[in-house]
Structures are given as C-alpha cells and as structure tokens.
Specification:
Blueprint (H helix, E strand, L loop, with lengths): L5 H6 L11 E2 L16 E5 L19 H8 L4 E3 L5 E3 L2 E8 L2 E6 L13 H13 L3 H4 L1 H4 L2 E6 L2 E5 L7 H9 L5 H4 L15 E7 L3 E6 L13 E5 L4 H9 L5 E3 L5 H6 L3 E4 L4 E6 L14 H10 L2 H9 L3 E3 L13 H4 L6 H10 L7 E6 L4 H12 L4 E6 L4 H5 L6 E6 L4 H9 L13 H12 L2 H18 L2 E7 L2 E4 L3 E2 L14 E2 L3
Parallel strand pairs: 2-11, 16-17, 16-18
Antiparallel strand pairs: 1-5, 3-4, 5-6, 6-8, 7-8, 9-10, 10-11, 12-20, 13-20, 14-18, 14-19, 15-19, 21-22
Helix pairs in contact: 10-13, 11-14, 16-17, 17-18
C-alpha cells in the first residue's frame, strides 16, 4: 500500500477543527533571488518537543520537520511556491514508463564530512528503508522501489505499481538523503545529523533549542543568506507569538486566533494555498445501512443543502475557503466550474429528496469526535433544515476502528490531496485508506486507473475528469478547505506556498 504517512492525516480527525511531472531539469529552487553573503541569525519557532535527525523515522515532511531536516539535509526534489516540482539533489529525471523513473543527480555535492552524494548513497538510503521499521511503514512507496545504480550520478527506480507522484513524494519527506556511514548505526541519527544540507548542527538543548551554523562550500549557498539558524520550541502558541512581537523570533506557524492582533502590531502573515478539505464522507454509497445514501439524488441534495460560505467562516475564520471538490484550487484536477456546481439551494435539495422518494427526509447517523463537533453541527443545521435528521455519535480512542468497521453511513474526516494522483488513489480506490465501505463505480474506477498510468498534461486531464465525476456522484459532503498561516517579523519575509511552514530557502531579510 502506498503513502502510509496518510494514515496520520486520517487520524487527524481528532484535531479536525484545529488550525489545520514527466521530466525536469534546470537550476535549483530559487524563490527569493540572489542574497547577500550573510544576514546574521535567523531564529524560528518550531513545535519540536521530541525530534530526531533520522528523516526516515520523523513525521511527515509538511510540518516543522521541514525546517529541522531542511537545515541539514538536501532533498532530491523541491516544491516551488506555485506547486511545481523543482530540482534538488536530483538535477533531472524522466519517466520512461509509468513504473520506471530514471533519476540523474547533481554532480559535485558532498555530505558534511566530504563523502560524495552519489547514486550509491541514494540506493543505500532506499535499501535502509526496506529493512528499518517503522521506516518501511511510513515510507512504503520508497520501500517498494527496486533501485539500480546505473553510474555514479544515475539511478533507475522501478515501482511495482505506477507512481506518478514519486517526485512529489521526494519533496515532502521521502527524499532527504542521509550519509550511508550513519545508516550503519542509525541510532546516532537521533541527536546527530549526517547530511549534505546548508547548515551543520552546532549545539542543542533537547526539546527546547537547536542551533545551526552555515556550512562552508555548500553548493547552493545563495539560497541561504543567514549565517546562523536557531529553531526554538515554545510551550504554547501565545508564548511563541509573544516572542515574535518582542523581536526574539523572525518566524513561526501562525494561530488563526492571533492574526488580527499580529497584523496590527506590524508582523507579516503569509497564507498558504488551500490544501486540506474537511467534511462528511458519505461512505455508504450502496445504501447498505442508510438506504437513502444509495441514491445519487439524495447525496446531491445534501450538497445543495449546505451554505458553504457561512459554514467555513463560522468554523475556520480566516483559514476557511468554501468549496465542494476533493481537490482545492491550485492542484491538478481542480475545476472552477465543477467547484461551483453545488450552490446553496435548499429548495433544490428538497426537490431532489422528494424525487428520490424522501419528501420528508430521513435519518443520517454520523460518526464524529468531540473536537470535530463544531464543524459537524454547523453542517447538520443546514441538513436538518431540508428534513435530514442528523444523529451525531462521538468516538475518540476507537474512532479509526469505527470508521473502518463498515457500520457507519457517514463519517467525519479530513484529507490532504497532496500529491494529487497518489492521494486520489488512496481516497477513491476500493482498497484505498479513505474508501471506508470499498465503494466502486465504473466511471470513477476507469478514470482513477488513467490517473495512475499517465503523467504531465494527460494526467491533469484525467484528474480533472475524475474530480468532476466524484463530485457528480456526490461521494462526499465537503464544505471547503483550510489553509496554513505563517507569521514573520517586520524585517523578514518568506514564502509558504502550499506547505505548513515556510521552507528555509525562502527566508530573506525584508527588501532583499
């Protein structure tokens, strides 16, 4: 099974209401232009109470670990702020088939001890993943690869199934390359990094602070203007924000409750493109337990019943973006016309319910959790207005087992469709993590297969058709999407793009 890291996102329902390419070549990521030789110290807030420098064992790369690991490790690829795959350690690549990727590494790069970063080093990392637990579970798509060294800078990667999003996987936690010497004794990586990145660890106070100094001779030094990097962990968002206002920090993830006050105090707030969607999975699409859900008119009626603008504003404030698709704007597969298909129309909702044989509505049991109830109740109010009696049942410790039990017609969940093709497979495939009742539809299955067997423009077309088909079949009840916020001091800028934090290579002194 691919993308096991997604299981962590599935479990994130317990915090659902929290601030939640075919070929390539060219220059490395360069989002901020050339920088000065030194810009002093960059100090950032980071929630890293327990940290490891073994990137194969750390959580998903789209969080504060992006900065911790990005300081000391190079990644095979990067994601630009506009969502494009860019070179990193990998200078160019070509999919010679849906299951075969030829990867060419950048020449002349070394680890911090002078050992060359070559094809053998990458293979050593991928081989380590196959045998290390839980690395093999967290990075199943890497563990499944057959890696062959063609020459010192070229690798042939073969996957058992099509992996159209492998380059994105490399950019989001699956492409940090560790010095093979350290992999022989991986326990040392708990506190001591062994990478080829722009910084080296100078000192640390476990759970509190990590200090890095810029590495001499780094191949892409122009993208990292600060001579010293400090990551500090705080006990609360308020304490972190106080440090920002006092000038003790230059950047940190932003809490939506602090945005207004921070802007008023002169801080800069960067908002990511929308990435995650929350809502109710209409899991019983065959009508096995909730007979009404077996009719597409009923599922469509539920979508017309929602006032998405009001729901997202009430629940998420500045983080909420209304929408109905399984793909937010900015990702391959999104269609503005499809996203506008379900306008707020309670009269049409009642009409569709009546035409489906439910003029007086029906009862809809929904599996939820206490912290998700704000969202569920907001949605339920609009459903009840058209006659649907929503019965919310909260579960906490057994939520996942309940979700996969097949006993629930509707389940509250959150999903991040990045990378798009891989995560649509996990969401929609009858055997996917997000398909609780193993639903199947001939059109959706055929389009899903096409997204897994194509790349580039052909894949984008297939994804767009797939997203539209899912929306038409109304498999989900999605009120909208959430974005991430990142705040910096008035003298610092960065670009968050579609990430949870700003990557280190985007930080610049203001005006640079």
């Amino acid at each position: 099974m691919r993308g096991i890291r997604r299981a962590a996102a599935l479990a994130a329902v317990v915090t659902i209401t929290s601030a939640a390419a075919a070929c390539g070549s060219g220059a490395p990521s360069n989002t901020g232009g050339k920088s000065s030789s030194s810009a002093g110290t960059l100090t950032l807030g980071a929630a890293l109470a327990s940290a490891t420098f073994n990137p194969w064992l750390s959580p998903d790369g789209d969080n504060e670990y992006l900065q911790l690991e990005g300081a000391v490790y190079d990644s095979l690829t990067h994601i630009s702020p506009d969502g494009q795959i860019e070179p990193g350690l990998a200078a160019k690549w070509t999919f010679t088939s849906p299951t075969t990727l030829m990867l060419t590494l950048r020449s002349g790069v070394t680890f911090s001890d002078g050992t060359p970063v070559n094809a053998a080093a990458v293979k050593a990392n991928f081989d380590y993943v196959k045998t290390a637990s839980p690395a093999a579970q967290q990075n199943a798509y890497i563990a499944a690869l057959t890696t062959t060294v063609v020459n010192s800078t070229t690798l042939k990667l073969v996957s058992p199934d099509p992996e159209p999003d492998l380059l994105t996987d490399f950019a989001t936690g699956g492409g940090y390359i560790v010095n093979p010497k350290a992999l022989k004794d991986p326990a040392t990586l708990t506190t001591k990094p062994a990478g080829s990145g722009p910084y080296v660890l100078a000192s640390s106070i476990p759970g509190q602070q990590w200090t890095f100094t810029r590495r001499a001779g780094y191949w892409d030094a122009a993208q990292y203007p600060y001579s010293t990097l400090v990551l500090k962990s705080y006990a609360s968002a308020q304490a972190e924000d106080d440090a920002l206002r006092a000038g003790q920090l230059q950047g940190a993830p932003e809490s939506p409750t602090l945005v207004k006050a921070d802007l008023a105090s002169g801080l800069r707030v960067e908002e990511s493109r929308p990435e995650a969607f929350d809502g109710i999975w209409l899991a019983d699409r065959a009508g096995k337990d909730v007979q009404a859900l077996g009719k597409v008119q009923v599922r469509q009626a539920l979508n017309y019943a929602l006032n998405r603008v009001a729901i997202m504003k009430a629940v998420y404030g500045p983080l909420g973006i209304p929408g109905s698709l399984v793909m937010p704007a900015g990702l391959a597969g999104y269609s503005a016309s499809a996203n506008a298909a379900y306008s707020y129309d309670p009269a049409k909702a009642r009409q569709l319910l009546a035409a489906a044989g439910y003029p007086h509505g029906f009862t809809l049991p929904v599996l939820s959790s206490p912290v998700a109830d704000t969202l569920v109740q907001a949605m339920a109010g609009y459903l009840r207005a058209v006659g649907v009696n929503v019965q919310i049942s909260d579960h906490t410790t057994d939520f996942l087992s309940q979700a996969y039990s097949g006993k629930w017609g509707a389940v509250v969940f959150a999903w991040t469709p990045i990378p798009p093709a891989q995560n649509m497979d996990e969401l929609l495939s009858p055997t996917g993590l997000g398909n609780f009742d193993h639903s199947s539809d001939p059109q959706i299955d055929a389009l899903l297969a096409k997204t897994q067997q194509t790349s580039g423009g052909a894949q984008t077309i297939a994804l767009t058709q797939l997203v539209q088909a899912v929306n038409s079949q109304a498999w989900f009840l999605i009120p909208g999407y959430t974005a991430n916020l990142y705040v910096t001091g008035s003298h610092t800028t960065c670009v968050i793009g579609q990430r949870a934090v700003c990557p280190l290579y985007t930080f610049r002194p203001a005006g640079k």
